[in-house]
Design goal:
The complex is a heterodimer. Chain A is mostly beta strands. In chain A, about 5% of the residues lie in helices and about 40% in strands. Classes of the chains: A mainly beta, B alpha/beta. The interface between A and B is large, with 44 and 33 residues. β2 of chain A pairs parallel with β41 (about 805-810) of chain B.
């Protein structure tokens, strides 16, 4: 299946060590920008109790969930430390200042 | 195939047994646990620190809910097993749940012994066994009235000390002539009694309880000699007996406890028993070390290793009352074949006694100075012939072979197999080798990997000394807990260094103080941000990405990701215009829940994040500003109606409350800060459980502080009395600033006050006009930069990105 890259905006739309949401029919996706200008996208849904990860504090390549302080790796989507669980990661492409995410499920639905 | 293992009871022994079992035979059993208590496995030894307020329930949980999930354990909380059918191999709970088993473990523990006197069933008579008992005692202690503890043993004295520290007037009744007579000889018992009495606890020995008196509830205890001791709470702590009724009904061999062989197997080949309910070799046990030994043996047998056998060993006893050091081990009765060596130092409050038989130690009592306990225990265990060091034995290990008196040398000289942690049976070699092998650097790590110091904690000092010895300069036992894993520095050091080095940004702090991570974590960044806001109000640019979400978007996040909004209502006073504006906002935004808060204002719940600026805009038009109900900062000033309306009011408490709130709103503090002003000592504004409170009286204003009514419940302390409103404001503001400058992030004012000392705070605020004025002026300066309404800023467009999604994708395609 061909990957459908969807434009979501500019790198600078997201604060450093911050996150923004992208709304999709399948729920929100959280797009993170780390201190080192890396971009990651994961489901905005903590594997613990569904907390909105986009609202958490971003440190290194991880985010701490605002509800119960689970720490989720932005690279793997897996809970770090003693907790266990994982969240879907979404491929991101950076083209200059422009950001794209890959949504295969959506592409197939549209087709 | 997986076998079914059912466990009756969820205490420390079966919990430990499962840890061993999962290690030795992972996946072999599907485990089901029935727990008569409605909770997970917690450290029962630490109930006394919970009672005294030194620890919380959360801190003593051994296995959280996640552990049960992780190991696929079915845990029935609050299910008491009422029948075992050995023929069908099933158990049935009081809620009617029946489970079958291949192997069954009975770990029903013990029940407190109730002395059979009239009145034993009156409301207000408690035992001391589980968390429910502790919670009942804490509730009763709020009255600060009189309590009687029956029983001067380990448990009774810990209960008495806990209740006394909670403000109750406590009397201990003990039937024997001296306290803890089973562990202490009369001399040490006497020293202990003096130390207990020094804490304001009355002790009556040789006290025979005749009855508990009261009409409908406890009113007092009557002794056999006719003495009546008034009390609203009676705690029976006279001992425990094994809980073996269930096993007996099932036809198992039961003596004092459930009879088991050295492999923990009962008279039924598929049923084991561990813990206080089990009787092995005619002995039943109540201390944790032998119970953990049972757990180890039972786990081995369940895992298929039938060679493991329970071995009896004497366990030292230690009393967990802060400030009283005592250690007791073995046998110390007098006898013809025994000799003893005694050391007394009345001034220092030290008493040591070693009982010998044929030049070998059989018993030890140490009071006041217990550092050599592990050494004496080791000599006794190994049956070392002590004739060579007999002259200096009583002075302890440091005096042997002319070594200098140094506790580190004493620990260094201990052999590798010397037991350090009695509760968990961990020896010195295990600790030092684990520290090296796993490169451990913190006490918590050592606890996690070796279990040493993880139960009652009384060997913590020894473990820390071992860490010093093993790690050398890399470990400093005086170091406080680091802020987080990003640094080795504690909060106080960081605050001090920020000021000393003039560090004015988070990256500067991390650089200069050698942070181990590139950009900190969710623990240290909000703390650092607060410290910098507090210390450099004019120069520091607030780092929003280092604030918790609530403070970043100025609303309270809820479990479903929506937010709640609480506008400020000064002093809890409102009017028809404000209420109408709130009603309109509720209608317009279809706000699903409107709730009156405990701080006398109105909470609007269930608002979508994107709607927040619009909600604030409408509220702002009616004059509302943020109530900062989300802030580690000034929350509310609760008031009563005071002298304007109330027939008892002595001052204008509403007016003073509003004045304080208008002066202090917007200020950030280490943790939330809630105030109240009551117009008379009837205290309708509940000022005596607030962070800072004022009780108005005819002659002026009594300022209170350091109360709590949340996780902890604590009445306030009196700071002092002032005569005018102006003074009241100045003193309160100065106190708040002192807390702002010294508190550790997330440390409520009562915890800070406990750490700094109430007298020191009174000295600086009440007694030192220059200091007070300095604090006051620094607060006023800081307010110049803090008193900006965050809601109107955001209505005007600040942080727009926070409230809008970055993009909305996929919907159009889906609609096609």
């Amino acid at each position: 299946m061909t990957v459908n890259w969807i434009s979501i905006g500019l790198l600078t739309d997201i604060p450093l060590r911050g996150a923004r949401c992208v709304k999709t029919p399948d729920g929100k996706i959280a797009v993170f920008r780390t201190a080192e200008n890396q971009i990651f996208a994961i489901d905005d849904h903590c594997p613990h109790k569904g907390g909105p990860l986009s609202q958490g504090i971003v440190h290194g390549a991880a985010v701490t969930c605002p509800l119960h302080n689970w720490v989720i790796s932005l690279e793997t989507g897996k809970a770090l430390g003693a907790d266990e669980g994982s969240v879907r990661t979404i491929p991101v492409r950076i083209d200059g200042e422009h950001l794209f995410i890959a949504l295969e499920a959506l592409a197939s639905r549209a087709a | 195939m997986t076998e079914k293992l059912v466990i009756i009871g969820n205490g420390m022994a079966p919990g430990r047994m499962l840890e061993h079992l999962f290690e030795q035979a992972p996946g072999r059993y599907a485990v089901t646990i029935f727990n008569a208590e409605p909770r997970v496995n917690y450290d029962r030894i630490m109930l006394s620190p919970v009672l005294s307020g030194e620890k919380s329930y959360e801190e003593i949980v051994i296995h959280g809910d996640g552990w049960y999930i992780q190991h696929g354990i079915t845990l029935y909380k609050g299910h008491k097993i009422v029948a075992i059918d050995r023929a069908a191999k099933t158990v049935t709970s009081d809620h009617g749940v029946t489970e079958n088993y291949d192997k069954l473990v009975i770990a029903t523990g013990s029940v407190p012994f109730i002395i059979p006197v009239p009145g034993k069933d009156l409301p207000g008579v408690l035992t001391y066994r589980d968390l429910d008992d502790v919670q009942a005692m804490l509730l009763a202690a709020q009255s600060r009235e009189k309590a009687v503890v029956i029983g001067g043993g380990l448990l009774g004295l810990e209960a008495a000390a806990g209740l006394a520290s909670r403000g109750m007037d406590v009397t201990v009744l003990h039937v024997m002539p001296t306290l803890m007579e089973r562990q202490l000889d009369p001399a040490a018992g006497y020293l202990l009694q003096r130390a207990v009495e020094d804490r304001g606890i009355k002790v009556i020995t040789k006290a025979n309880t005749k009855q508990i008196i009261g009409d409908g509830k406890v009113e007092g205890v009557e002794l056999a000699d006719g003495t009546i001791i008034p009390a609203t709470l009676v705690v029976m702590a006279v001992g425990i007996r094994p809980s073996a009724g269930l096993a007996k009904d099932a036809g198992l061999a039961v003596n004092r406890g459930i009879v088991v062989d050295s492999g923990m197997l009962t008279s039924d080949g598929d049923i084991y028993s561990v813990g206080e309910c089990a009787e092995v070799d005619g002995m039943v046990y109540g201390l944790v070390a032998p119970l953990y030994e049972m757990a180890r043996v039972a786990a081995s047998h369940l895992a298929g290793d039938r060679s493991a056998a329970f071995v009896h060993s004497d366990t030292p006893t230690k009393l967990k009352v802060t400030g009283i050091n005592l250690f007791s081990l073995g046998d110390f009765a007098e006898g013809d074949d025994r000799e003893e060596i005694v050391l007394r130092d009345a001034t220092a409050g030290v008493y040591k006694r070693v009982v010998l038989r044929q030049n070998r130690i059989i018993g030890t009592v140490l009071y006041g100075e217990t550092a050599d306990g592990a050494w004496f225990n080791d000599l006794k265990k190994k049956q070392t012939d002590i004739s060579e060091m007999r002259d200096t034995l009583i002075f302890g290990q440091a005096y042997q072979g002319g070594a200098p008196l140094d506790p580190m040398a004493a620990v260094a000289a201990l052999p590798d197999d010397a037991e350090i942690c009695g509760c968990n049976g961990v020896c010195k070699g295990k600790i030092t080798s684990t520290i090296t092998a796993k490169a451990l650097t913190s006490l918590d790590d050592v606890r996690a990997h070796t279990k040493a110091s993880a139960s009652c904690g009384s060997c913590t000092g020894l473990v820390e000394q071992l860490m010093s010895l093993t790690l050398g300069a890399a470990y400093n036992p005086a170091t406080v807990t680091p802020m987080c894993t990003c640094t080795t520095l504690g909060h106080d050091d960081v605050r001090r260094l920020i000021k000393a080095k003039g560090l004015k940004t988070i990256p500067a702090v991390m650089q200069e103080l050698e942070w181990k991570t590139s950009c900190g974590c969710a623990k240290c960044r909000p703390a650092l941000n607060y410290y910098l806001v507090c210390d450099f109000p004019d120069e520091y640019a607030d780092d929003y990405q280092s604030r918790y979400i609530n403070e970043r978007v100025h609303a309270n996040i809820q479990k479903d990701g929506t937010y709640s909004v609480v506008p400020r209502m000064w002093g809890g006073v409102t009017n028809s215009n404000e209420l109408r504006a709130i009603a309109d906002v509720v209608d317009k935004f279809e706000i699903p829940m409107v709730k009156v808060t405990g701080g006398q204002r109105i909470d609007l719940l269930g608002i979508e994040k994107e709607d927040l600026p619009a909600v604030w805009a409408d509220l702002g038009k009616a004059g509302f500003v943020s109530g900062q109900a989300y802030a580690k900062g000034l929350r509310t000033v609760k008031t009563c109606v005071g002298s304007d309306w109330c027939r008892f009011g002595t001052q204008d408490s509403t007016g003073l409350g509003i004045r304080i709130e208008k002066f202090m709103w917007g200020s950030w503090t280490p943790a939330k800060l809630k105030l109240a002003v009551s117009g008379c000592p009837r205290n309708c504004a509940e000022a005596t459980c607030k962070d800072i409170g004022v009780i108005c009286v005819d002659s002026g204003f009594e300022i209170h502080f350091a109360g709590a009514a949340g996780l902890d419940i604590k009445g306030t302390e009196v700071l002092g009395m002032v005569h005018t409103e102006d003074e009241a404001l100045e003193y309160i503001v100065a106190l708040a600033q002192m807390y702002r400058e010294q508190g550790r992030y997330l440390e409520r004012i009562y915890k800070w006050a406990k750490r700094i000392g109430l007298d020191e705070i009174r000295r600086q605020i009440m007694g030192d006009a220059d200091k007070r004025r300095g604090y006051y002026e620094r607060f006023v300066f800081s307010q110049k930069f803090a008193q900006v309404d965050p809601w109107s800023e955001r209505v005007s467009g600040k942080d727009k990105h926070e409230f809008k999604p970055m993009a909305t994708v996929g919907f159009a395609q889906a609609a096609e």
